[in-house]
Amino acid sequence: MSEEPPALTAAEELALARLALDEGDLAHAADHLAAALVLAPTLPDTHETLTRIAAASGGDLDLFPLGQRAHVGAVVARAHLLAAAGRPAEGLDLLVAATGHAPGVDWAGVPWVTAPELAQRLDPDRCARILMQVCAAVPDPVPRAGRAPLTPYLTLARHAVAAHPRHALLLGAASALARRLGEVTLAVTWASRGVREAPSKLGEVWLGYAYRSAGRTRDALAALERAVGHDPDDLAVYADIAGTLADHGRLDEALGWIDRALTRDPTFDCAVHTAHRLRFLRDGDVAHLVDLADFTRDHPDDSHEHTDLAESCRGRPWLGQVTPATGAMVDALRRALAADGFPDAAVRLDTVEPPSAMRTVAAAVPGLHVEVTGVAEPDPREPRRDTGYRLWRYEGTTAAPALPTPSPAAAERVRHLAHPAWPHPPAAYDAAVGLATLDLADLLGLLVHPPDAPPTALGRVLSGQDPSLWVRCVQVWACLGLLHHRTDEPWATSTRRRVLVELIWGVEDWITEAALFALVTAAWIDPTVRPDVAGLVAERLADVAAVAQGRAVPIAVSLAHLALATPAVDPDTTALAHRLLATPPGARRGRRLTRAWRRLTALVRRRPGPRPA
To answer: What InterPro entries does this protein map onto (predicted)?
Structure first.
């Protein structure tokens, strides 16, 4: 179903439709009418013009053809003609299809849909299926702001229940729609009546979901367990019970239900997804999520889309988001932004901090004077190992990029892709494929010459609240782009591995974190590289821990989080990561940054609803 951006107003499209109609050009009249329906689907003049076209053509449905690329306005026009021809059920099917295409448009807000007599004419089984189609086309629950265009369907459900008060399937489907639209009490009432009329698995599932939305957890679990009694082989219900129990802190019981499901079928997708998510909740071991990612990759034809991996990674350092930077410089930057100006004349540092931090703060607060009183050992200006890529050069304690600026095309490409959050590491890798065609020089140049944030809502928030986060986004996505560089080369001798390894051993910097994240991501998507990457991560974290015994290492906490996100990392490295994260000052800072991150990304986060039913 296609929808071209409108160039004319609804009134203009209607005027052209009437002109074409007067000239006998029904095809062009229909085209303009379809365009007007997209712009004003409930405008009386639109429907009056459609009536004239129908009269002139003898109700010719072919004026509004269906097909793979059908225009949504033509689909809606055909729906109205079908209803006028005495085929309202077929018309409703098409309106629901339009709703699935654009749920925020009031396609059904017309008199024939909300008239009480429609429900009396519809077969209750067919009406129930139509309501289920609406449920499948919209989120669960529908956000409050998006409910108004869907209320005509709820009105249809009310009339249908009044016309067929003892039809169990209709009562259950109506309950499912009411629940999605926030009418929870009504949903419980209808679902309860449906179960009383004809107890069934599906009826109990609808009732369980209604009870769950009403906060009646005990009743919800009882209904879902009765559903299992009706059909012990429907393992999706086991997963629903487990999810409900887990949501209320009853993790052991939840895992018991999942184990029962897996005993019946160890490959059942809903049970496998839920099991890995709950086991991760229980012990925090990323191996469960890696196993889930492997299962998802190896089973692309699951019964329906699952969100367990994304839910588990959401909000967790490096699993689902860039970790905010730490250190004296970025702390000073955040104080300056919070105070709407820099209250102090200078920032005094005991030693130099990561060059990306120094340059980001200098750019964000041009008048800031930074005094570096010394250089701690080991010298943070020197790479941790000899590398072939020198990204920074120093004059005293001042860092400058040692690479030329990237091309404007590369800068624009990363501005379009860079984002502080992703569903999970494999999804981040997939999204970065848009950088695959960039030259190596451009990808490296982006690391030290990050472009300005884009003029989008998110870009403005990043620039205004924490410019350091945008710089880190660019560096992360540039390194993910490196993962797509020359992918035909075998991993062990590849350019992408060699460059990323050299980057993690360069000067202590945010780039170290970004490159290590790219290596960790490689391990998520390719099991064959996991031993190699786990060894690299262990080695790099051990070096950080050794350096931290003599001086502050601002990237240490982030690298510890990266180690905990690494597939197949050894237990000693995991223990070391936990020790680094347990340092009291870092822990306190981490809590502050978590609160800031939640405020920053509130506009781009939304928790998905439960499994459709």
So the answer is: TPR-like_helical_dom_sf (IPR011990), TPR_rpt (IPR019734)
pLDDT of 372 over the 70 cut:
yes
Mean pLDDT of 517-540: 98
Q: How far is CA 102 from CA 64, 96, 134, 258, 278, in A?
A: 19, 10, 12, 36, 34
> What does the alpha-carbon distance between residue 403 and residue 416 come to, in Å, rounded to a whole number?
22
Could you tell me whether strands 392-395 and 398-401 are parallel, antiparallel, or unpaired per DSSP bridges? antiparallel
Question: pLDDT at position 586, please?
Answer: 37
CA atoms of 442 and 432, how far apart (whole Å): 15
What residues make up the domain containing 591?
Answer: 402-604
Tokens of 439: 């030259």
DSSP state of 4: P
Number of domains in the chain: 1
Q: What average pLDDT does range 9-23 have in this prediction?
A: 95
Q: What is the DSSP string of 17-58?
A: HHHHHHTT-HHHHHHHHHHHHHH-TT-HHHHHHHHHHHHHHT
Question: From CA 276, how far away is CA 555, in angstroms rounded?
Answer: 30
Q: How many CB atoms lie within 10 A of CB 55?
A: 10
Residues 6+ apart with CB under 8 A from 126: 89
- Give how far Cα 202 sits from Cα of 174, 206, 215, 218, 230, Å: 13, 6, 20, 18, 9
What's at 280, amino acid-wise? F
Q: How is residue 157 written in tokens?
A: 């459900």
Q: Has residue 528 been placed in a domain? A: yes
Residue 527 lies in a domain: yes
Residues pairing with 399 in the sheet? 394
pTM: 0.82
Classified as helix, coil or strand, 186 is: helix
Cα–Cα distance, 517 to 519 (Å, whole number): 5
> Which residue type, as a one-letter code, is found at position 511?
I
Instruction: Write out the DSSP string of 369-427.
Output: EEEE----SS-TTS-SS--S---EEEETTEEEESSPPPPHHHHHHHHHH--SB-SSHHH
Establish if 448 belongs to a structural domain: yes
